[in-house]
Amino acid sequence: MTLEEKNNIYEILVSQVKEIIKDEPDVIANMANISSILYNGLKDVNWAGFYIWKKDQLVLGPFQGKPACIRIPKGKGVCGTAVLKKESQIVENVHNFPGHIACDSASNSEIVIPIIKEEKVLGVLDIDSPNYNRFDEIDEKFLKVVVALLLKECKWDNE
Q1: From CA 156, how far away is CA 113, in angstroms rounded?
Q2: Domain with 37 in it: what CATH number?
Q3: Which structural domain range is residue 96 located in?
Q4: Which position among 97, 124, 140, 159 has the lowest Cβ density within 10 Å, counted as fewest Cβ atoms?
């Protein structure tokens, strides 16, 4: 896939996200629709969804794909590391990631974008692929836009 094709796909996905969550403050409903848009719109993805930060751990939220780990502690696996460091994680080969949690043995690469508001982690957007080295800075850029839209549009439990 060319750079232009990848950008075009993401521009379409971002516009779909904008339209579907517009004027809808419910975070769970919006996460469910965003998961579906990303899962169905991105190539070579076998899991797309959210974990929500609750009581000092990540708890499984809306997703598309096979069943997943329900609870992830801070600092554990790719998602927990994104929470600990408060930064995106792009992992070319999850089998080489220290402390990787293998929820689906078919997953070989992963990207996790933390959802942060006023320095507080509210959750993460997590996407897995059966392909190695599937994700890059372009994915990160556009997925951060998706997370920013979610933060802007939704009413979070702590508000």
Answers
A1: 17
A2: 3.30.450.40
A3: 3-153
A4: 159
One-letter amino acid of 129: S
**Overall residue count recorded for the chain in this entry:** 159
**What is the helix (H) or strand (E) element at residue 32, kind and residue range?**
helix 27-41
Angle at 80 between CA 78 and CA 85, to 5 degrees: 90
Residue 125's Cβ-count burial label (10 Å; 0-12, 13-18, 19+) is: buried
Q: Which of 46, 74, 47, 48 is nearest to 59 (CA)?
A: 74
Taking residues 65-70, report their average pLDDT.
93
Question: Which pLDDT tens digit goes with each residue over 13-56?
Answer: 999 999 999 999 999 999 999 999 999 999 999 999 999 999 99
Q: How many domains does the chain have?
A: 1
Decide if 158 is inside a domain.
no
Q: Tell me: the pLDDT tens digits for 86-122?
A: 999 999 999 898 777 777 778 999 999 999 999 999 9
Residue 159 domain-assigned (yes or no) = no
